[in-house]
Design a protein that fits this description.
Strand order of the largest sheet: 4-3-6-7
Number of helices: 1
CATH architecture of one domain: Sandwich
Order of helices and strands: HEEEEEEE
Largest sheet: 4 strands, antiparallel
CATH class of one domain: Mainly Beta
Structural class: alpha+beta
Oligomer: single chain
Helix content: 55-70%
Radius of gyration: 75 Å
Length: 240
């Protein structure tokens, strides 16, 4: 008997077909569900990416703004630094000018002090010269007075003393030897005592004047008696 080359097709089983159809449906549904999940995941990731991109763009904008503010602040700092540098240079220049002015003032003060010292020395020299001139003037006046005194004639009066009646007392006798009345100054000094007698007396021409206790005068030994007249040299005599 010859072998059969082809099998006779079997009639499909309805149950198997339903099972296969269910499996295919489950697979299709699973695939659809998986695709949906993948789609939602992709959409969520896209949204997150878009949000992240927006945030990055916002960060870039903020960065640009901050960079602008930093640049402006840096410009202000540079400007303030320039102003500060200019102010420091101005202050340094003013300080230098002040130092120069102080040095100039100190030099002028030293010059003034030197001038004052020179003026003081010159004033002292002038005072010394004036004092010397005054001394020379006094010496000249004294010399002239001495010369005038020496050139005057002797006083024409003889002065003598003798004992009075009262013990220890003396009587002075003034004798005018000239032919004219004489107006005389009488000075009596007692050595070691503060008493000093000064009198004006007049002696007639060619006459004598007696002065003793009876006339209210008292002379004692040791006293210095001076008779003077502007026209004559003085007579000085010690009572003895």
């Amino acid at each position: 008997m010859a072998p059969k080359l082809f099998r006779k097709p079997q009639r499909p089983n309805p149950l198997a077909r339903r099972i296969a159809s269910a499996v295919l449906t489950v697979v299709a549904l699973s695939a659809a569900a998986y695709g949906y999940v993948q789609h939602e995941a992709l959409r969520s990731l896209g949204a997150q990416l878009a949000e992240t991109t927006a945030e990055a763009n916002q960060a870039d904008v903020e960065l640009v703004r901050l960079r602008g503010q930093l640049s402006a602040a840096q410009d202000r700092i540079n400007s303030q630094g320039s102003k500060l540098s200019a102010a420091e240079q101005q202050a340094a220049a003013e300080q230098q000018a002040l130092t120069e002015a102080q040095e100039k003032a100190s030099a002028e003060q030293r010059q003034l002090a030197a001038a004052q010292q020179q003026a003081q020395r010159e004033q002292l020299q002038l005072s010394a010269a004036q004092q010397q001139v005054e001394e020379q003037k006094r010496a000249l006046r004294d010399a002239r007075a001495q010369l005038a005194v020496e050139s005057r004639p002797d006083l024409p009066v003889r002065l003598s003393f003798f004992d009075a009646m009262r013990a220890g007392a003396k009587v002075a006798v003034l004798q005018n030897l000239s032919n004219a009345e004489l107006d005389l100054t009488l000075d009596v000094q007692t050595p070691g005592a503060a008493t000093h007698v000064h009198k004006q007396v007049v002696v007639a021409a060619r006459s004598m004047l007696r002065m003793g206790p009876a006339q209210g005068y008292s002379f004692s030994a040791g006293q210095v008696v001076t008779l003077g007249n502007d026209k004559f040299r003085r007579v000085v005599q010690t009572v003895s």
